[in-house]
């Protein structure tokens, strides 16, 4: 541990909550240098929806490497890229009636958001962006300007501008869309007509706040009526995390632009894409660039993940069953410990439990770690415990993790309220 404290920047965060050295991982398990095993209910913050070292994905990757397949190709053509584009079209886009072109950006989610914002401004020739309270979109300048979290914003050191923030659904009991629509039609409201609206349908870092289908449909209608592009940030909520491949599918809306990263690479390899309606593709060659926008290893595992998990509805059924099981435990805990908990949050397997205080959530997460499970918190005050295990988790593993959680809850309840029932 000394080398990390001596050499690594203090900017690290997850390692502060989980102060061990991990050496191996398989499925939803992490193993330390001393052989201790931990259930992973963090899953790379949503980057490992298909688990650690998924054997089918690993086999495809090793086979590709063994045949000296292209590793790095900038944005040049490769068979790995062709396979991914073909599979994405046949397995994901066409069955959902979606017609998107694909832009490969730098390999992080925040770079995909930057590209989406740049494109929206280029297409509309407007500079302002509308984002939402509690939204999180990344830590580079443009994405950070659209991010609500003050902790992250204060790290920028520069003015973050060209973003108007309106209330997300349920925020402070304010009808943000009515306010937005009114301001768009009021010449004295002081809002410039935006190029785009950027949102997460389920806010990950913001506390697992869920936009209802009706609210999303209203927002889509407002955008269309006012010639404003709608960008859905599906970086954390996409690739099945909310129960369907895209988080917006249940609402029936058709965003102009969608950003994907995290689990789109399948294996945890860096990869990010922007999906854009064909008429928006007015980029000139190289206008948005990046040395690592052609991660062919990620193309290989991304393709295999789409083939084996999204060829039918079995994976979605499994996610729904897991969500039902987690939800039952959360509801039981809310009922049993009203002094600790407020409510259930989230949707699908992007789900959690809101505590009355961030202190409670932190103590529950620590107690879970002490009992052999990695789980994190979210929300403006880190008051939500997030259940973010790999979507490939087995029933037995999920039961074990939920058991650890309930034991941790009983321990913290007894500590603060002198009861463990």
Polypeptide structure, described:
Helix 12 (314-336) runs parallel beside helix 14 (395-417). It contains 14 helices and 17 strands. The chain folds into two domains: 2-54 and 313-417, Aspartate Aminotransferase, domain 1 (Alpha-Beta Complex), CATH 3.90.1150; 57-309, 3-Layer(aba) Sandwich (Aspartate Aminotransferase, domain 2), CATH 3.40.640. The chain has helices at 2-7, 14-17, 43-46, 55-66, 79-93, 109-124, 141-145, 150-153, 176-185, 213-225, 296-309, 314-336, 358-370, 395-417; strands at 22-26, 29-32, 37-40, 101-104, 129-132, 163-166, 196-199, 202-203, 209-210, 229-233, 257-260, 273-276, 341-347, 350-355, 373-374, 376-378, 384-387. It is globular. It has 421 residues and is α/β, with parallel strands linked by helices. Strands 4-12-11-10-7-5-6 form a seven-stranded mixed sheet, sandwiched between helices. It has a four-stranded mixed sheet with strand order 1-2-3-15. A four-stranded antiparallel sheet has the order 13-14-17-16. A hairpin with a 2-residue loop joins strand 1 (22-26) and strand 2.
């Amino acid at each position: 541990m000394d080398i990390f404290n001596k050499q690594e920047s203090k900017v690290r965060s997850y390692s502060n909550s989980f102060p061990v050295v991990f050496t191996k991982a398989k499925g939803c398990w992490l193993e330390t240098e001393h052989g201790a095993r931990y259930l992973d209910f963090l899953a790379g913050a949503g980057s490992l929806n298909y688990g650690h070292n998924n054997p089918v994905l690993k086999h495809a990757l090793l086979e590709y490497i063994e045949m000296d397949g292209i590793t790095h190709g900038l944005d040049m053509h490769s068979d790995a890229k062709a396979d991914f584009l073909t599979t994405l079209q046949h397995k994901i886009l066409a069955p959902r009636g979606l017609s998107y072109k694909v832009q490969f950006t730098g390999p992080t989610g925040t770079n995909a958001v930057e590209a989406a914002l740049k494109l929206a401004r280029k297409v509309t020739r407007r500079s302002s962006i509308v984002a939402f309270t509690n939204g999180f979109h990344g830590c580079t300048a443009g994405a950070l300007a659209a991010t609500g979290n003050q902790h992250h914003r204060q790290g920028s050191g520069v003015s973050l501008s060209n973003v108007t923030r309106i209330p997300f659904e349920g925020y402070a009991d304010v009808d943000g869309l009515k306010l937005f629509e009114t301001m768009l039609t009021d010449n004295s409201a002081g809002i410039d007509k935006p190029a785009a609206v950027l949102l997460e349908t389920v806010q990950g870092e913001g506390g697992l706040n869920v936009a209802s289908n009706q609210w999303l449909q209203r927002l889509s209608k407002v955008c269309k009526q006012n010639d404003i592009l709608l960008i859905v940030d599906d970086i954390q909520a996409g690739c099945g995390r909310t129960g369907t491949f895209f988080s917006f599918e249940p609402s029936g809306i058709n965003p102009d632009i969608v950003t994907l990263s995290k689990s789109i690479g399948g294996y945890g390899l860096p990869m990010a894409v922007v999906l854009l309606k064909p008429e928006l593709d007015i980029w000139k060659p190289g206008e948005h660039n990046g040395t690592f926008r052609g991660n062919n290893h990620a193309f290989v595992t991304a393709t295999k993940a789409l083939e084996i998990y999204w060829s039918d509805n079995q994976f979605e059924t499994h996610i729904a069953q897991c969500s039902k099981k987690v939800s039952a435990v959360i509801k039981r805990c809310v009922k049993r410990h009203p002094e600790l908990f407020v409510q259930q949050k989230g949707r699908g397997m992007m789900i959690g439990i809101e505590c009355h205080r961030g202190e409670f959530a932190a103590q529950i997460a620590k107690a879970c770690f002490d009992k052999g499970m990695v789980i994190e918190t979210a929300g403006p005050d880190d008051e939500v415990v997030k259940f973010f295990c790999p979507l490939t988790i087995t029933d037995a593993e999920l039961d074990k993790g939920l058991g650890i959680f309930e034991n941790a809850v009983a321990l913290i309840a007894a500590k603060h309220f002198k009861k463990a029932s």
